[in-house]
């Protein structure tokens, strides 16, 4: 009934006032002029409202709801009038086709102007809603409102499907308005202020501190235990425009890389600041390790990584249908983290002896870590295969390290024996050697050289003996028959 009321306000007087029904062209023109007058007055008031807010920046407390309600009423009246022109006014169109067609175009132009006014008013309404949401610090609502503002201003329907209220013609005219640039600036100011407010709030809930000393560093991570507030802020902050590079750089340079490369002392507490925060402190030397002996045990490395993930677990919430916060962080850190983990921690931890190999649980530990990273959404098991490939090549790594260790041990023995000297031909004095050139002179040689010469002589004798007739008979054995010899 409410939608029918405007129709009878104007149409009844215009079309039925002279008793001629819809055949009276003059009555139709009169109705159009009345609507046009009302629309012009309405647009003048809307223009003043917009200029006060976006051109002159004058204080204006008028609510856009009043204008939107009046705009809707005028829209309904004009649509009813167009409908009557199309269905009941055929006779009138026959009498004055050109004039009535012009009236129809005029009505459509009025509708287009109303559409532009309504579009600007809805943007103004969203700006007022933003101010109200800022007062209540409802960041998820703020984020939604800013997204809707972007959709209305830039015509980005992918941001908000409901923003399709504006036709291409309305958007084209809207972008040509004087207030368009001012509205864009105001939107960017609101978006920037929202981003800054979210970042400040996030920094209070997730505190990352790093204190450097001449030879050491202490890194402290504190995460609020207020999961509701924390996840609201994180969900609002970690949207597509947000760049987490600063957070990822801090975690990689001050936490992940030192945990893998250096001995780290970790202190974890779930009752920090009166039980309101979870805290993890990492202390380590900043001087480059000069020996492999300073390399941390791989079990301690994996345990510290688990502590780091457990401390930050509060921020790992879903920010979209198929993405989590750890997934966003993982995109920035996982490649370097996995490479360091395999090259600097896991491969050096492969056992070098059979005894170590039989008692090692390295493969099982790596598989558990990989599953933890998958469950935390840091890595994709189908794409990030570094840990899985390490487990697959574990046997090869083990053999290579064992053979390398055998060679190193042999080289050490040889180098040590080179220092041990033995006397050769102790009875061949210089005078005797001078008279007999076939005598080897008395001298000192390394024990390794003597062993090598003795080994060569033994091999030569063995070869000569194996090719002699007696050697062949002995090879065949005393029970060998001529038929099988």
TrEMBL record:
Residues 36-127 form the Centromere/kinetochore protein zw10 N-terminal domain. GO terms for biological process: mitotic cell cycle. Pfam families: Zw10_middle (PF20665), Zw10_N (PF06248). Coiled coil: none annotated. Residues 198-414 form the Centromere/kinetochore protein zw10 middle domain. GO terms for cellular component: chromosome, centromeric region; nucleus. This is SD07771p. It comes from Drosophila melanogaster.
């Amino acid at each position: 009934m409410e939608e029918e009321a405007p129709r009878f306000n104007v149409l009844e007087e215009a079309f039925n006032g002279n008793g001629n029904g819809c055949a009276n062209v003059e009555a139709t023109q009169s109705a159009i002029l009345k609507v046009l007058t009302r629309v012009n007055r309405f647009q003048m008031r809307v223009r003043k409202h917009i200029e006060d807010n976006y051109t002159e920046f004058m204080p204006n407390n008028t609510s856009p709801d009043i204008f939107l309600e009046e705009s809707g009423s005028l829209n309904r009246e004009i649509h009813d009038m167009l409908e009557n022109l199309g269905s009941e006014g055929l006779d009138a169109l026959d009498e004055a086709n050109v004039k009535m067609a012009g009236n129809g175009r005029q009505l459509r132009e009025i509708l287009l102007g109303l559409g532009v006014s309504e579009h600007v008013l809805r943007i103004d309404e969203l700006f007022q809603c933003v101010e109200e949401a800022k007062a209540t610090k409802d960041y998820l609502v703020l984020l939604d409102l800013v997204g809707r503002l972007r959709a209305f201003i830039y015509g980005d329907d992918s941001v908000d499907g409901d923003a399709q209220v504006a036709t291409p013609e309305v958007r084209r005219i809207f972008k040509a308005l004087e207030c368009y640039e001012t509205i864009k600036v105001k939107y960017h100011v609101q978006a920037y202020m929202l981003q800054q407010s979210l970042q400040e709030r996030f920094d209070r809930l997730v505190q990352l501190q790093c204190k450097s000393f001449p030879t050491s560093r202490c890194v402290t991570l504190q995460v609020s235990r207020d999961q509701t507030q924390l996840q609201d802020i994180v969900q609002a902050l970690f949207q597509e425009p947000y760049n987490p590079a600063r957070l990822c750089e801090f975690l990689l340079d001050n936490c992940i890389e030192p945990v893998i490369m250096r001995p780290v002392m970790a202190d974890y507490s779930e009752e920090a600041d009166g039980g309101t925060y979870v805290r993890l402190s990492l202390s380590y030397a900043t001087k480059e390790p000069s020996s492999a002996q300073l390399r941390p045990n791989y079990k301690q490395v994996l345990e510290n990584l688990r502590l780091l993930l457990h401390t930050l677990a509060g921020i790992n919430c879903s920010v979209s249908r198929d993405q989590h916060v750890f997934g966003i962080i993982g995109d920035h850190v996982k490649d370097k983290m996995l490479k360091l983990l395999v090259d600097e921690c896991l491969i050096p931890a492969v056992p070098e002896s059979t005894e170590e190999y039989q008692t090692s649980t390295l493969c099982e530990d790596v598989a558990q870590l990989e599953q933890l990273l998958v469950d935390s959404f840091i890595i994709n098991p189908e794409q990030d295969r570094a840990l899985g490939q390490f487990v697959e090549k574990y046997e090869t790594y083990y053999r290579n390290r064992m053979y390398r260790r055998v060679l190193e041990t042999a080289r050490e023995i040889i180098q040590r024996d080179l220092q041990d000297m033995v006397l050769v031909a102790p009875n061949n004095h210089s005078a005797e050697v001078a008279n007999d050139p076939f005598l080897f002179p008395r001298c000192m040689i390394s024990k390794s050289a003597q062993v090598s010469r003795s080994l060569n002589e033994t091999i030569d004798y063995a070869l000569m003996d194996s090719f002699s007739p007696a050697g062949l008979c002995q090879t065949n054995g005393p029970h060998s028959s001529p038929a099988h010899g």
